[in-house]
Amino acid sequence: MDGHAEDRGRVYQSSGDQHISEHHHYGEEAAAPGGPDSVRRPAIGRPPAVLRDRAEVLRRLQASAGAGHGGEAYVLYGMGGCGKTAVAYTFFQWATGERGRVGLWVSASDRASLRAGMLAVAADRGAGDGELLAARNGLRPAADLVWQYLDRSAEPWVLVLDNADQPEILRDGSWLRTSPRGTVVVTTRRSGAHWWPGAELQYIGVLPREDAAQVLRDLAPHSGTHEEAARIAERLGRLPLALTLAGGFLSRQVLDPWTMETYARHLDEGQRVDLIDQGADALSEEDPRRLVGLTWQLTLDAFEARGLPEAAALLRLLARFAPEPLPLSLLNHAEISGSLPRARCETALRALLDQSLTELVDVGARCVQSHGILLDSVAAATPAENVPLLNTTAVRLFDAAVPRLPDAGPYDPLLRLLVPHALALLRRIDDPSTLAEALAVATRLSVALHRTGDYLSAWETARAAADLCERRLGAEHRIVLAARSRAGRALFRLGRYTGAELLLERVRAAQERLFGADDPDTLDSGHGLQLVLGNVGRRDDALALLRSTIAGRRTALGPAHPLTLRSRSSLLVLLSADRVVREEDGALLHLPSECARALGPDHTVTLGARHNRAWALYLLGRFDDADRETRLVTEAYRRRFGPDYPIALSAQQLLARTRAALGHVDAGIELMTDVVSRRERGLGPDHPFTIASRQLLNTFTSGRPGLPEA
């Protein structure tokens, strides 16, 4: 026997497999899919002026973009700072300019960036809003959708997956594939062939002596001779990133310009950063962090001499975060004054930009981005006495950038951009109290992602943050448990009910033992757990837990708190028709009015309560009332979330029921036909949600309007 729960999360027990098509807890959902504003422009900041000594690899890449070619994948690998991205960028510009190919550029540095970028690729190639929304919400395989549209592309393309230094991210989602319609180029530090099956590997190393010297001459042509440039290049290991930083320094000195001879003397005299710091690995002379450190410390010394110490402070602050696009808005907060005067931040940033120590990039939001090797070397060389204040400042900036009370709403690209920085900050911090503060903000970021419907990113953020902090804070630390609870909530939204149930039961048991049954964190986990129990057939257990949660929230938070009202609203879904009219002496059916008075008519919880009440009215046979309520809710959801969002389709499905129940079967058929069509596009024809909707449509067309059971 198979059991299907659809529309309002009704579930049926079965002796064999159980399939649950849908359950919505109204009040935690959000809006349409999103991603970077453009995947047509490489997000690399300042492009290389001239690319030296890469002619052979460029010829191989260019051959793949010729007529009749396609299906190739190339992996450009080498140590950080060797210019892999510069090679990919040069090929990208050539393929789009000379060959007219569509260029698609995606950051593959972390899961959230990769998924958002690849879904933007699918949108660029013609995927519809419903399909993208379902993929973002984890309701259909995202990689399959992307490659389906890449394979169908009417135009040949070039796809660059940049900074894929964690190839397991590509493997886990099966993101790296080939297509006869285009060429794929990956840049990475990881050279293991087992990570890149079917791809052609190309090593990108340091530059030959003559080319390395010419890079310095390209950037600072009047600073010295070719031989002097070659001497500096050898001293810097001929690493392109270090050469770029050195050339930028030499070309931008105005008041007291340095010659290459002067620069080389400072290098030889040992005026460089000591990268062997507490907790840092001992570095060889050839380590790219050491080579880069030779250059940026001289630049910062020059800033100090010119009366601009804030540039060093800002660079050390940036080194607390990840080498990914960092929204400029994060730096534009009063909290930055903990490390440098806010009024001097603009000047400090301009100095770093001028010396190529960071770059401006636009990925839908204006950002700065610095090379990972540079940030690692700066972090390792930061004086130990400065670290606590830098960490505190970074956490406060991060805290100011994340919504205080995350709510359902339109897609916000800043949320996804913050994910890698949240995790990088957790890796940098050692102090337990500061780490707990950072974890609390990362958990709030997960909540915000969850409420935009990005359940995969929400789960990955909460899980990764808890994993990073558990060893230092302990598995039963309050904030670690709260992060685990949010991971469980996201698992539920992803349809992974078994994992969600086990995780939430374990977390709630620990919270109850440590903090008490009526602690807000315990109650939050309890609310999430009852949602899962209701969907796996444990209805009585879910109802008992929900009643306990409501009582606890009344006591801890008050009767008018949004969380208390949200839990009471869930009763309208779990209770049968005969019980709902008796609940709270009949007051439960008036809950939407109570929510509107306490929170406002457009509050997420108020809309959810109205939707749940409409279902209860339908079960009671009060079809006119149910129809009016459902129509208003459906229109509100469509305005706020769009027509393809699951919550809007669920409301439309209920409207089809009420229309048919009132005798307007043709109207019900029209509404359900649209629901089925949108679910087939978004989820595929065989998804349980789609099957359940098609079954309801069949009852309408066969003359059985699908009235509720007595």
Automatic annotation (TrEMBL):
This is Tetratricopeptide repeat protein. GO terms for molecular function: ADP binding. Coiled coil: none annotated. InterPro entries: NLR-like, P-loop_NTPase, TPR-like_helical_dom_sf. It comes from Streptomyces xinghaiensis. Gene3D superfamilies: P-loop containing nucleotide triphosphate hydrolases (3.40.50.300), Tetratricopeptide repeat domain (1.25.40.10).
